[in-house]
Each structure stands twice: as C-alpha cells, then as structure tokens.
Amino acid sequence: MRPLWFPHYIPPLWFPHYIPPLWLPHYMCLLWLSQCMHSLWVSIYMRVLWFPHYMPLCGSPTTCPSVVPPLHAPLWFPHYMPLCGSPTTCIPVVPPVHACPVVPSLHAPLWLSVADVNECWRYPGRLCAQTCENTPGSYQCSCTTGFRLTSDGKNCEDVNECLNNPCGQECANIYGSYQCYCREGYHLREDGHTCDDIDECSQSMGHLCAFKCVNVEGSYQCACPEYGYTMSPNGRSCLDIDECTTGTHNCSLTETCYNIQGDHRCLSFSCPDNYRRVSDMRCERASCGNFMECQNSPLRITYYQLSFQTNTVVPAQIFRIGPSPAYAGDNIIISIPRGNEEGYFSTRKLNSYTGAVYLHRQVHHPRDFLIDVEMRLWRQGTFTTFVAKIYVFITAPAL
Ligand SMILES: [Ca+2]
Ligand SMILES: [Ca+2]
C-alpha cells in the first residue's frame, strides 16, 4: 500500500504542481487503491490529455483488451506496463470511457523509491505451487520438468509424457515423470527408452533346451535334430520318432523295423541251412548228422535286440541266458564267440544254470554291435548248444 507515505499524491489540488507526466503510472495505483473518483478523474485527465498512450482503455465495461500493456506501455518505462491480465473487468470512470484496473504492485515506478516488490520472497511458498520467479513489476510461476502450469497460473499438474510415445515399447506415466519398460523377452537399454532383445540362449548356459537353443526376437525357441526327433509338448526336449510305428521307415517287406533313439534299423533274420524258422526271431536245427555235430552246432538260434545309450554306466548287465526249465545237475558254459573282437562285452556265470552278459567298456559314440552269445548246457552226460544273436545298439542319449 505504498501510496500512503506519499501524501502529496493524494490531495487532488496539489496534483497540477507536483505531478509531472512521468509519474502517471503511480496514479493508476492510486486509482486502484482508493477507488476515489477524484483520483480517477485525475488519472483520466492526466492520461487522456497528457499521455493518452498510457491509458488502458476498454471498449465496454466488462472486458479489457488483453494486449493493452504492450500497446500502451511507454517505451522509456517498460517496467511500468499497466497489465490488465488478472482483473478482467473494467471500472467505469467517465462514461463512456472505461479504465482497466491496475494492480498497484505491478506498476510502481522505481524512481519514486517504490522499488519492484519481489513477491516470491515476500510470500514464500504461497504464490506458486512449485517455482516462483520474480519479474519487473510482477512474478511468474513455473513448474519443474514433468509438470505444466495449470490455467490458474499457480499450480502445477503432472504431464502425461506417455501420450507422446517416448518409449520403445511400454510407457508408464508417473507423477512428475514417466518410466519406460519392456515386454517379456526384452531388457531396457541404459538410455532408459530402448528395448533390446534378450539372448536367452547365451545367458542360460544351455539349460533351456535339451538339444539346441535358437534365439529369436523377444523370445527363444528350442530345436531338435533335423531327423529322428520331434519336439516334445514342453517345447524343450526332443522325443524320438518311432519310425516303425509311424510308418516312416524304409525297411523292405522281408526286414523287421527296430526303433532306436533318434533313428531306426531294418533287420533281416535269416536261418542257416539245415535250420527252419519257427518264429520271427528263432531258428531251430532241423537235424544233425552225428554225435559231435549234434553237440557242437546250436540246437536253437534266437535273435534279440537291445538298445543302450552312450552314457550307460558300465559295467552293465545287459542280458541273461539259461535253460528253461533248469534241472538239478545242469551246468552251463557261456562265451561270446563272435562280435566281441574289441572287448566291449564280457560274460559271467552267475550260477550253474545262469549266465550273464555285460557291457563293460564305455562306448563313447553311437554304434551297432551284433554279438553271438553261446551257451553250452551240460545235462545228463551230453552238451547242447544254444546261440543268442544279440543286436546291441548304442545310441545317443535322450534329448
Ligand atoms: Ca530373445
Ligand atoms: Ca527312432
């Protein structure tokens, strides 16, 4: 309320002597403060007659021209600008002329010892919600990053940055800021905005897939060998295709299809001369000429197929053989006369009528063996020979 200590401004009779034209803006303050018709008149009088360009005039009693200040500010007192910003109504003075009310603090002339008031210091925290910046004759509220000034010019509201799609994938608006995040399978780059595919295959040290991991954008996929396997329902491990039951084998009509892990085999069983085929798997001697031949040539030849994986722990008992039925006094001799040249297999007699075959060396790579296991049975004073022809398929481990 600065005019109070300038009493010489108030008596209207003094004004012609004391008020040079340049003081006029201050009278606008008086006008606002006192609502005194006389001061009003002084103001109007001075302004209209002497400095008409100071006079913020309005066209009607209710509206003020929004661009009054720039239009009417004297060039040599830019800090005097009579603002018509906040009080938007006009005060009727001398009809039909109307003046815009002027906020006193905004228009104090510095050279009248009424310095600009730093409203931000005078009313800390009360004028602006966030940041207050003093300006000549006024102040300006502003907001920190992430906020925008509301229409009241005082408060700040959160900006929803997500509306401008600043993120590579997903955006979450938060109060005063925003956060980018990525969909599953991606990670946020250090720039905080870009999403990069995660290479799950290289990060998982090969535990994700039984056979092969293939990185793809946003995810990964497991793969199986091109032939012999199909993907299991869990999408990670591989299942052997049983070519024999699915009919995808290439065995001829005379061959028997045998499925193994990751592949299959076409086996043909033939009986030697003098043997007759009694089943798919068995040949029996038709006749024997003399005693020695009858003792030494197999009475029966039976085919078997066994399948083991390369990671089978050795020694492993893979086969048992013995007379059925067995009688007291039976005794057997067991051997592998063919197919064990490299010594992967061995035999052991478990008791007088039971023999066992062992895989006793590790087979490191998939491989097929055909071994003849011969059992000579001593019973009631004569030997009888039996042969088991055993296919042993060593396959890769299950995937
Ligand atoms: Ca990926
Ligand atoms: Ca197979």
TrEMBL record:
<dbReference type="InterPro" id="IPR009030">
    <property type="entry name" value="Growth_fac_rcpt_cys_sf"/>
</dbReference>
<keyword id="KW-0272">Extracellular matrix</keyword>
<keyword id="KW-0964">Secreted</keyword>
<dbReference type="Pfam" id="PF12662">
    <property type="entry name" value="cEGF"/>
</dbReference>
<dbReference type="InterPro" id="IPR000152">
    <property type="entry name" value="EGF-type_Asp/Asn_hydroxyl_site"/>
</dbReference>
<dbReference type="InterPro" id="IPR018097">
    <property type="entry name" value="EGF_Ca-bd_CS"/>
</dbReference>
<dbReference type="InterPro" id="IPR026823">
    <property type="entry name" value="cEGF"/>
</dbReference>
<feature type="domain" description="EGF-like">
    <location>
        <begin position="116"/>
        <end position="157"/>
    </location>
</feature>
<feature type="domain" description="EGF-like">
    <location>
        <begin position="158"/>
        <end position="196"/>
    </location>
</feature>
<comment type="similarity">
    <text>Belongs to the fibulin family.</text>
</comment>
<dbReference type="Pfam" id="PF22914">
    <property type="entry name" value="Fibulin_C"/>
</dbReference>
<keyword id="KW-0325">Glycoprotein</keyword>
<keyword id="KW-0677">Repeat</keyword>
<keyword id="KW-1015">Disulfide bond</keyword>
<dbReference type="InterPro" id="IPR055088">
    <property type="entry name" value="Fibulin_C"/>
</dbReference>
<dbReference type="InterPro" id="IPR001881">
    <property type="entry name" value="EGF-like_Ca-bd_dom"/>
</dbReference>
<protein>
    <recommendedName>
        <fullName>EGF-like domain-containing protein</fullName>
    </recommendedName>
</protein>
<keyword id="KW-0245">EGF-like domain</keyword>
<keyword id="KW-0106">Calcium</keyword>
<dbReference type="InterPro" id="IPR000742">
    <property type="entry name" value="EGF"/>
</dbReference>
<dbReference type="InterPro" id="IPR050751">
    <property type="entry name" value="ECM_structural_protein"/>
</dbReference>
